[in-house]
Automatic annotation (TrEMBL):
Name recorded for this polypeptide: Response regulator
Residue ranges occupied by any Response regulatory domain in the UniProt entry: 5-119
Annotated organism of origin: Chryseobacterium formosus
Domain of life per record: Bacteria
Keywords of the record: Phosphoprotein
Modified-residue entries (4-aspartylphosphate), positions: D54
SUPFAM superfamilies with a match to the protein in the record: CheY-like
UniProt entry tagged with the keyword Transmembrane helix: no
Amino acid sequence: MNNQKIMICDDDAGILEVLEMMLEMEGFSVFTENNSTNLLKEVANVRPDLLLMDLWMPVLSGDQLLKTIRITPEFQKLPVIIFSVSVDGKHIAKDAGADDFIAKPFDMDNVANTIRKVLTQYQM
């Protein structure tokens, strides 16, 4: 693996920890952010290859952030995967411009496979 950088944003520390451990075992460099209001600054600093983000977070929701990312020239091509427990999550994520959606509770193999699939699409 070429040590691709994954940024994860979720207000749930437990989910961040599990995803970070799992994705590091898959060979990714992982950066986490639990405060959605800091996310754009962190994305600018880290320049991740992909952003994995919860849909429902306090202050700024994932779809609000994603809409901002999609209209910001330096970030608009950033691959983004949204995850959520929401039954409407897939539809909301797609409308906001997400590249893919993962339902919570998630299967770890599915998370890694979805990330690889989206990263591959962007490398074409």
